Amino acid sequence: MSFIKYAVPALVAAQTAMAASCGSTDSTITIASQTDLDTYATCTTLKGDVEISSSASGDLTLSGVTSITGSLSCTGASNVTSLTASALSSIGSAFTLDGLTTLTTLSFTNLSSVGSISWTALPELQSLDFTKGVSEAGDVLITNTGLTSLDGISLTTVGKFDITENTNLKTVNVNELTNATGLINFAGNMDSLQIILPNLGTGTNMTFRNVSGVSIPSLETLSGQLGFWGNTFGNFSAANLTTTGDLVFDDNTDLSNISMPVLKTVNGGFQIARNDKLKEITFPDLEEVTGAIDFSGDFDSVSLSALTEVKGGFNMQSTGNFSCSAFKTLRENNVIRGTYTCKANTTDPTTKDGSSGTGTSTSTSSTSSSTSSDSASVMNVASMPALGLAAVLGALLQYAL
């Protein structure tokens, strides 16, 4: 009996000590070496945050642990060459890596759920060893890495998806992604980058810069902006898109065809400018634009046969010999409510804000059609995005062409 009397409290104390050694909620476990990691090999769950010190170096392996309730972070550890956690399946909060300039291996073969991902300045990291694939994450930010693909990022939903300055990134194919609740942004990656989001059906804002292909065949609605700047693809199709916020095609040098056959509503401004190979513009189902229409370039024909309302202004200028007659009628019938300008065969077409509407200078005979204006408020799409997106576009000014 006396043995039990003393053994039970001792066992409880040992269990308490073991639990304490696996961290606690709202605490931080600091790792400076592999020896530190080894002390947690008997833990299946680490409670709180795990922070790898900037002084850590070499190959680091976290064994046995299947979950971290808080964050996993490592900042400024320029001598860490690999991070491995083969059993880890979930990170409750942020997974942050910043400034690991010699990291070549990131092996998390069972990881499927993270609170968010923020990876910055990992120039030697070329691939991910994420066999199971991360299917659950909030925001994902990957900037200035050596990654050639995002294989292992297998998201079904995401908040912000911001992929920038990864100059070796060749393909992004997130097959299972169906919804994005924040900004999807690609900018400054490899010029030949192909972006494939085959099952994305809904989203908020999507912006693409300096890419060679965008495939979004299932996209149906965007509550915010869809914008393309400085891309090199020849064709763009959004076969199922019916509604979007601001819609912008600006300075896409090889763009010769835009196919959006069921687009009905643009809740914002609609700009097409400086796409010199785009000769025909057709949006057969477009009915409503709540901002301005601002088309300028070298196009020869424009068809907006279903248009019933443009709440903002209307600016259409081209070196080509398109007809303004249909749009003049829309203006006279008050379908176009703001300032109206329509010019065909003009030598120097301009956008609504007066900037050049073509990517290269041209010399053609100038023949202007009717131009008129009224006192209606006009949203200038070239300089003002849809209401509520100013902060988003401000963050993207660093990529402006």
What does this structure look like?
It comes from Aspergillus heteromorphus CBS 117.55. Pfam families: Ecm33 (PF12454). By secondary structure, the chain is mostly beta strands. It has a domain at 249-384. Helices cover 10% and strands 36% of the residues. The strands form 8 sheets. The chain has a 17-stranded mixed β-sheet that branches. The termini are far apart.
Describe the structure in brief.
This is GPI-anchored cell wall organization protein Ecm33. With 401 residues, this protein is mainly beta.
Tally of separate helices: 4
Distance from first to last alpha carbon: 82 Å
CA gyration radius, whole angstroms: 27 Å
Mean pLDDT: 88
Q: Give the helix/strand class.
A: mainly beta
Keywords:
GPI-anchored cell wall organization protein Ecm33; disordered N terminus; four-stranded parallel beta sheet; 401 residues; single chain; 4 helices
Give the secondary structure arrangement, pairings included.
Layout: H1 2-21, E1 23-31, H2 34-38, E2 45-52, E3 57-61, E4 67-68, E5 72-75, E6 79-84, E7 90-98, E8 105-107, E9 113-122, E10 134-136, E11 140-145, E12 153-158, E13 161-164, E14 171-173, E15 179-180, E16 184-187, E17 194-196, E18 202-203, E19 206-209, E20 213-215, E21 221-222, E22 226-229, E23 235-237, E24 243-244, E25 247-250, E26 257-259, E27 265-266, E28 270-273, E29 280-282, E30 288-289, E31 293-297, E32 301-303, E33 309-310, E34 314-318, H3 325-332, E35 340-343, E36 371-372, H4 390-395
Parallel strand pairs: 1-2, 2-4, 2-5, 3-6, 4-7, 5-7, 6-8, 7-9, 9-11, 10-12, 11-13, 12-15, 13-16, 14-17, 16-19, 17-20, 18-21, 19-22, 22-25, 23-26, 24-27, 25-28, 27-30, 28-31, 29-32, 30-33, 31-34, 34-35
Antiparallel strand pairs: 35-36
